[in-house]
Design a protein that fits this description.
The complex is a heterodimer of chains A (177) and B (112). Chain A is mostly helical and 177 residues long. Chain A has a domain of 58 residues. Helices cover 75% and strands 0% of the residues of chain A. Chain A is built from 7 helices and no strands. Chain A is extended and about 65 Å long. Chain B is mainly alpha-helical and 112 residues long. Chain B has one domain: Helix Hairpins, CATH 1.10.287. Chain B is built from 4 helices and no strands. Classes of the chains: A mainly alpha (177), B mainly alpha (112). At the A-B interface, α1, α2, α3, α4 and α5 of A face α1, α2 and α3 of B.
Chain lengths: 177, 112
């Protein structure tokens, strides 16, 4: 499982580049590198459905980011500017929060089963009965379309609400100049 | 153990970008990074060593699968992440058209 660690190191480096670089186009491409690494890691942890969706979503995300940057500017003018007092406060507060959060997550992760030994209390029943109760061979599809179908309905609601918001903000007619 | 902590570090890089950066595009990038980190953490929690993807290929073979429930939850979260990112970027584009800057300090100054 050494490749998982290598990909995580690569993703952390790419994420730091994405947040610190001056050229916004380069930052978005670094974000794309993180997203496609996530897709490859999904394949490595035996989640092909997630990998397919992640690739489609990642392409769309990068295209939308690039479209917004091409309509505006690709230079981040805030990099290298004189640091304001509020920003120092934000960094200090973030450091305190990050320390506390890491400590809490360290405690929480110790309660989880170790990596590679998921307990699957509910999923055992789903896998045993899924083929006869639902009839689908793909367990992920069985869960999202039958056992947790209301969750998927909520997802569709959120997605259509965001599409309505995007259309309302993008339209040309009816806007005051 | 270390692999979970690495996901949390990725999450914290995204949070750092949201809290301390003054460029709106960098803030949107921070949101995307946090989403990736959490999705990856869920998929890693459901992993079992030596198990296969949760798709039944023959009824007789033993069903030695990874946990399908985190995968189903993450599948929902990935699509919602796309919707929120698209909405956020459209709002950022309109803000740029009005103020001609991505700097949130400048936008506050021009509010009047």
């Amino acid at each position: 499982m050494i490749e998982l660690y290598l990909f995580l190191v690569f993703m952390i480096v790419a994420a730091i580049i994405a947040t610190e670089i001056k050229d916004l186009l380069a930052a978005v491409i670094s974000l794309g590198a993180v997203g496609f690494s996530v897709a490859i890691m999904f394949i490595l942890v035996q989640a092909p459905d997630l990998a397919i969706v992640q690739i489609v979503v990642e392409v769309l995300t990068v295209v939308i980011f690039v479209a917004v940057i091409l309509r505006s500017t690709h230079i981040d003018e805030t990099v290298g500017k004189k640091i304001a007092g509020t920003q120092i406060t934000a960094v200090v507060l973030f450091s305190v929060f990050a320390f506390l959060f890491l400590f809490a997550m360290f405690k929480a992760i110790q309660e989880l089963p170790a990596f590679g030994n998921a307990t699957m209390r509910i999923a055992k029943e789903y896998i045993r009965l899924g083929l006869t109760q639902v009839g689908g061979a793909n367990m992920v599809a069985n869960v999202i379309l039958d056992y947790r179908a209301l969750d998927t309905l909520g997802e569709a609601t959120v997605l259509f609400t965001s599409v309505i918001g995007v259309v309302a903000l993008m339209r040309k007619s009816g806007r005051k100049k | 153990m270390i692999i979970f902590i690495s996901c949390i570090i990725l999450f914290l890089i995204g949070l750092y970008s949201i809290v301390t950066k003054r460029n709106l595009i960098k803030i949107a990038i921070g949101f995307a990074l946090m989403e990736y980190a959490i999705n990856l953490l869920f998929a890693l929690i459901g992993f079992r060593k030596g198990a296969l993807a949760p798709i039944i290929t023959s009824v007789d073979s033993p069903h030695n699968f990874v946990d399908p429930i985190p995968q189903a939850l993450v599948l929902t979260a990935i699509v919602i992440a796309l919707g929120t990112t698209a909405l956020m970027l459209v709002v950022i584009m309109r803000i740029y058209e009005k103020y001609k800057t991505f700097d949130i300090a400048e936008i506050k100054k021009l509010k009047g």
